[in-house]
Amino acid sequence: MENGYFEHAEVEIEERYRYPIGRFQTVGEISAALLEQWIDEIEQLPAKLAAAVEGLSAAQLETPYRPGGWTASQVVHHIADSHMNSIIRFKLALTEQTPTIKPYEEASWALLSDSIGAASVDISIKLISALHARWGILLRSMSEKQWERAFHHPDSGLIPLRMNAGIYAWHGKHHTAHITELRRRMGW
Fold it and tell me: Hey, where are the domains in the chain?
C-alpha cells in the first residue's frame, strides 16, 4: 500500500514539474475572442520570459527545472528554436497548400553549443522579442480565410493554424512557468 502511495505521489510531482500549467487542452470551436487572447499571449511572451529570468545568476540559469529536465537556460533557447519553427510553419501554410512540415529533434537541439552554456539567455530573449513582434504583425493581419489554412505534421497529423496559435500561446506560458516554478521552489 505504502509503495503504491509513494509511487503515485512521485508521478503527480513529476507531472506537476513537467506541466506546471497543465497539458495543452484542445478546444472545439475557436472563437474570435479566444484567438485574440492567444495572439495577445504570443505577443506578451517576450516580456514575461525576460521577467522570469531577470536577476538569475549563471549558476541558477544552469539549474534544471526538474530532475532530468533542461536547465532554465536551455528552456529559453528552446523557446527561441521552437517559435522560429512555428512562425515558419505559419508562413508555409499561408503560402503553400497544406504543406507537410519537417519536425526537428528538439532534445538534440537543446544539447548544441548555442543552447548549453556558450550562449547567453539574453541572445535568445532578444531573438524571441523580435520574432514575436513580427509574428504578432503576421497573426493580426491574417484574414478569416487564412486562419482556415493548415499544415500537416508527420507525427501529429493536420494542424489548423487557429489551433497552432493556441498551442504556441500555451507553449510559451508552459516553459515560462518551468522557470517561474523553479524560482518559487528554490526561493530565488
Answer: 2-186
Please, what is the Cα angle at 147 between 45 and 98, to 5 degrees?
105
Give tens-digit pLDDT for 27-68: 889 999 999 999 999 999 999 999 999 999 999 999 999 999
Give me the helices (H) in the chain, please: 2-18, 32-53, 58-61, 72-95, 106-109, 121-141, 144-147, 161-186
Taking the model in full, what pTM does it have? 0.92
Grid coordinates in use for 163?
489551433
**Amino acid identity of 73?**
S
Which one is the CATH code of 2-186: 3.40.50.920, 3.30.160.340, 3.40.630.30, 1.20.120.450? 1.20.120.450
